[in-house]
Amino acid sequence: MKQLLLSFACLLAMPLFAQKTVYIPLYIQDTNTIEGGQFTWDKTAQSDNFIMIWGNTVGTDPASYTADVSLAFNPQTILNTMEMLYDNFKDLGFLDDSAGTNLAQYKIPIIMYGTYGPDVVQGFANGGDVDGVIGAFWVHPIAMQTGDVAAHELVHSLQAQCVIDYRNANGLGPVWNNAGIFWETHANFMRNLIYPQDVTAWGMDVYHLETWGDWKNTYENYPLLFAIMDAEGINMVNRLWRESLSNEYPIAAYKRLGNYNQEQFNTIMYSHIRRMATFDFEYNNLGNYLREYRAADQLNYLPTVQAAYNVLTKVEGTENRYAIPIEQAPEEYSYNIVPLHVDAESCSVIVKFKGHTDANIHAGWRYGFVTAHPDGTVSRYSDTYSANTAEIAFALEGDETAMYLMVMGAPFNDTTTNATNDTWHGYPKHFRFPYELTITGAVPEGFQEPANFREQLKTDGAVHANGGGWVAASASVASSVYVSPSAIVLGNAQITGNVRLENTALVKDAIISGSAKVLNNAFVNGGTYSGNAIIQGQAFVENAVMSGNALVGMRARVTNYNLSGTVEVGGDVVVYNAEGSCDNGVYYKLTNFYEDNLLACDGRTADHPENSDVNSTYTQFTAQQMEMLCNCETLPNCLALAVPNNFVTDNTVLIYPNPAVNEFTVKATGETNSLKLYNAVGAVVNVVVKQSREGFTVNSSSLADGVYLAEVISDSKKQWVRVVIAH
């Protein structure tokens, strides 16, 4: 009864001009709570669409509160900002207050943190809903000094409103949660449309190898949403909220809502992804802010220096053959940006691309060139390529000064991330799409003249006599230490003994001794490393202690941890517990979302279920396979001849009918020895061992509809053919 009377009192107390009803949250209606006990109407302020509510600490005139200036605020100023944001989000179509919605009926409550005394839960800013009735948010006065935090939290309240007014009403169930990643990314996306200066580039630059929506990049995935908006309008982004199925992965929802088949969708996604090379976004000057942010990070934020541009590995014994390291191979719809440093004397940059289709049954790619003007803005995009093997060419024109090879992981059969196989399964359970390249007319990033590699970092220092790498004047590196030509030592690093810094290793402020090694494109920032410790791959280690034979590799990120003995940390493990210590076991997966989780340190091996990889091992291509057909004399006619069939490189294997219903026939030109049939998750579903020159029939009547991969061995040669089962 008390609740009903108070609700009625709320209605009576409304100003006459208001068109919406004030809804007071139930916990504030309850006079037994601290907030409810302090509620009075003279500690509220209203506008057309909002009601602010605060506690006794700042009194009835919070603008004049002087005891703690961080708690002072002007309600009218805040309400003016909120109404501006409301109008903008309504114009963008995400806010819908049409007749029949709760948003048309109720004002959005804003509850002020810090104003109810020390015994109430405090916070900075968070948004959601109250009582399943109306969106709301809770915010500290400091967070309301500018409008950007308010914009982010208002979006959270509108996301909750979308659930109330759209999804619940239509039985759609919850939006893809994944620990709120899409919620946070979308809130920043909407905020940035109004406050473009708030964008950051580091999220995509550091984590662009990860499947979109990975937990390590919770807030900064929004450039993809910029691209979708530019291409299809803001309404498509809005539809991802209103029309996605229960817990549907946003990428899968986008494909479904756009009515794209897989081939079309891969090409559409690549058209978005290639924009990331230059942040090609015109809306409200977003691209310019992103480019400025990236440029600043290249000077001041070393994780971006390490990760923004991918560094290939040169195939040993060759002049111009390269491979993407497996830890840098793109996952589905993630990407590589490979700067190409063009030879001015060459007629064109020519690239032979060959993908490792044997890595997994989803393996596919989209790739092409991007060129840029001196100011970093995009100049041209090449055609989009999808063949597993092809030769492609592009040349700089006009004032263009930069060229990039963009490669995206494009699963040929379906999106593998979904409500049950989300991004929390870790590196071993993510499909990666490796490839190799032969390049003429340019060298890729990391293989230009060493003096020009990451030259923005080389402002005060000298070339090290043992190896030729760069050492800052503030660092101390003994003559016995090997620093390879493209390795860099910065800050107050102290390196002694038989340490080796190889390839494009980056070290700052670390103490390294003994026979420790920093290899490949690893980055070590602070900490102490001794014995035979190794940091390699794309790993990032910060303020850790490593000794013995401890190893950190792949894409692992280790901070404030003590690793010793024979422990190996790899995959995409993120571990940052200051009390952590481990000396044994192999760890490729650790889900650590804002928690100080510890490594299990239980002696597990690489074969442990959490470590086992869904990707297969693959063999480096031969010199003959990577031999280039095209050159300046044979361009451009040679290009068409350099694209073989996607999977089987000749006509030695025939499967028919394809698609199949209850059976299909396998026939090869030579003697067929065996067939293995794999389903979409890599499990063997049928094995036939039969030597025949006439071919043989495979029963598929019990197989579920879908795409399968047939591994056919004929005349001791293994080949792969895709088979579609459609009953």
Please give a quick description of this structure.
With 727 residues, the protein is an alpha/beta fold. It folds into five domains: 2-167, Glutaredoxin; 178-292, no CATH class; 303-449, Jelly Rolls; 451-587, UDP N-Acetylglucosamine Acyltransferase, domain 1, CATH 2.160.10; 647-725, Immunoglobulin-like, CATH 2.60.40.
What does it look like?
The strands form seven sheets. Strands 16, 17, 18, 20, 21, 23, 24, 26, 28, 30, 31, 33 and 34 form a 13-stranded mixed sheet that branches. Helix 6 (147-167) packs across helix 7 (181-194). Helix content is 20%, strand content 25%. It is of the alpha/beta class. A hairpin with a 5-residue loop joins strand 10 and strand 11. The chain contains 15 helices and 42 strands. The protein folds into five domains: 2-167, Glutaredoxin, CATH 3.40.30; 178-292, no CATH class; 303-449, Mitogen Ypm (Jelly Rolls, Sandwich); 451-587, 3 Solenoid (UDP N-Acetylglucosamine Acyltransferase, domain 1); 647-725, Sandwich (Immunoglobulin-like), CATH 2.60.40.3080. Keywords: Signal.
Number of helical elements = 15
Report the count of strand segments: 42
Overall pLDDT metric: 91
Stated plainly, the CATH topology of the largest domain is called Glutaredoxin
Architecture of the largest domain in CATH?
3-Layer(aba) Sandwich
In the predicted model, the low-confidence regions spanning at least 5 consecutive residues are 1-18, 644-650
The proportion of residues forming helix, as a percent range, comes to: 10-25%
Strand content: 25-35%
CA radius of gyration: 29 Å
Number of domains: 5
The largest sheet is:
13 strands, mixed
- Assigned CATH class of the largest domain: Alpha Beta
Shape: globular
Pfam families: DUF6055, Por_Secre_tail
Keywords: Signal
Signal peptide: 1-18
Protein name: Secretion system C-terminal sorting domain-containing protein
